[in-house]
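Protein modeling request. Please complete all fields; requests missing the sequence field cannot be processed.
Requester role: graduate student
Desired output: 3D structure, token encoding
Chains: 1
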Amino acid sequence: MSLSRFAQIFPPERLLTSAAHLSAYESDALTAFHSRPVAVVVPESADEVIAAVRLCRELGMPFVARGSGTSLSGGSLPVAGGIVIALNRLNRILKLDATERIAVVEPGVVNTQVTLAAQPFGLHYAPDPSSQTICTIGGNVAFNSGGAHCLKYGMTSNHVLGIKAVLATGEVVEFGGPSRESIGPDYTGLFVGSEGLFGIALEITLQLLPRAECFHTVLAGYRTLEEAGDAVSAVVASGLLPGALEIMDALAIQAAEAAVQSGYPKGCEAVLIVELEGPREKVAAERPALDALLAASKPIESRVAANAAERAKIWKGRKSAFSAVGRLSPDFIVQDGVVPRQRLGEALRRISEMAREAGIRVANVFHAGDGNLHPLILYDGRESGALERAEELAGRILKMCVAMGGSLTGEHGIGVEKRAYLPDMFSADEIALMHRIRAAFDPLGIANPGKMFPGGDAPALVQHGLHPLEKSGVISRE
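Delivered output (478 residues):
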């Protein structure tokens, strides 16, 4: 039996096969989808990950890499007949060079741990997804995570300098390095956001940035969601580049207040969080312009965080919003379509109209600065047809985003949830090219199969033999 082969690599306590153990891995944060793997293996070193992948290649067995399981698109959903490779124990920061401003980490390192390690040197790791206290760098790389401050600092792809990975072929590759200066194709950029379809990152070289000297955090409450959206458009059009621009609507505010009591303005249909950051002189120069813009947007109430504690309280409400919505509904779907910033107010109005037509409550929490919507579609899975109605509304929202010139996803990925909508954004030729690129890294289609592509994976396009990337010297056999 194939599992006996895995038992030669992993001791019994790290080769999980009981129903009780497997049930904990049968879904990720998108709990509407479930699939039970044959087994879960828990490596403690890169060599064990490589051995597991090579055995999967030999057996033709599908595998899914998993960190903390916070994917909201079903991206780490197990594959029937396959295994889960759980990476949480590969959690070491292998190197932190404050002079070069880099950190080399294993995939199971939790996002916030990088900043905590860098803080004594006046540095931080910029990408800050809402789940940053639990999500891992490996997962951030797989889905190109962003966060509240991605408007100014960019996504994970903007902060990953190099990757050492094992491809689904069992080959070990090294892309990029400790410097942004490189020659040839950007394989590091290609790997980031590949949703686990190429292989598993073993070591990730991250760029660290100086921590901002000063923060100016403003919380403004508005009568309507559209007014808050229009305020964002005005701030961006002015030429200001805040560290963050975030919006929460009335439902999200209600949930966050119940969970963490952040003290958001009462009686508002939306709140806007704007944060300037940087050198004191720069923030001081930008404050008058921001104050004037916000005053012109006519908020019901506006307040400035007077100290670090008040700033943390404001952000605690925003960061807890996703989980807090569980207080309002037993189940919900989180989408993350993107629309052009200048159409943000229009998009929010249309989401409200679609929600009323469907008779479904929708809480809106989103990275307003880059138009990355996070509508949370509330439903009760115990009611017949409720999930299907919620998914239909989610699909309408995604189609609207694409029709407005936006995207199906900003940071959560396609996973299993959005794969049916890929043809709404890409042509048949473009999708065929994606299949060919995937097959160049994984000719057997065993790495996280069933994700991203509508109708599943295409037949393998690259056969056994010399790997295309090996011809160019990009990869090496070990």
